[in-house]
Specification:
Strand order of the largest sheet: 4-5-3-6
Helix content: 25-40%
Order of helices and strands: HEEEHEEHE
Strand content: 25-35%
Shape: elongated
Radius of gyration: 22 Å
Largest sheet: 4 strands, antiparallel
């Protein structure tokens, strides 16, 4: 009886250790294989994963590896749009207003030398009064 209890305890310890080590490896792989950045969505900060290599596309993110350097544009919603000088905002960040949606979103084309990711990070650091700030990218939803 004592032997079987000892054997079971050893097996449970071994299984727990193996599981813990495998989770740590997965986390390290994610950090190395994906580029993370923060967007603002209706006042909530969200982290987006973008694969660094095209072979990882569709696994954990609907984005592609090409979007790390993309300059497609951004979507912004201001908390109080009446107080924002859009022309000054365009000039400061080298953007061009494409359209203003009825729901309050402004869609800008990125004309700066920065990628969309770098531009979003810069705007988040420098500006207040923004409710939503995210890239204007198409999502590539694929079944896994």
């Amino acid at each position: 009886m004592r032997r079987s209890t000892l054997f079971i305890a050893l097996m449970v310890t071994f299984a727990g250790t193996t599981f813990a080590l495998s989770k740590k490896t997965e986390t390290m792989d994610t950090e190395e294989q994906y580029r993370t950045f923060t967007v603002l969505d209706k006042g909530v900060k969200r982290t987006i994963l973008i694969p660094k290599e095209s072979r990882l596309e569709g696994k954990m993110s609907p984005y592609s590896a090409k979007q790390i350097d993309a300059q497609e544009g951004i979507v912004i919603q201001f908390t109080d749009p009446g107080t924002v000088d859009i022309e000054a905002f365009e000039e400061k960040y080298r953007l061009k207003l494409i359209s203003k949606m009825v729901i309050g979103y402004y869609i800008f084309k990125n004309q700066s030398k920065l990628s969309d990711i770098a531009l979003i990070e810069k705007i988040l650091k420098e500006e207040t009064g923004i409710k939503t700030l995210k890239p204007n990218w198409k999502k590539h939803n694929r079944p896994m």
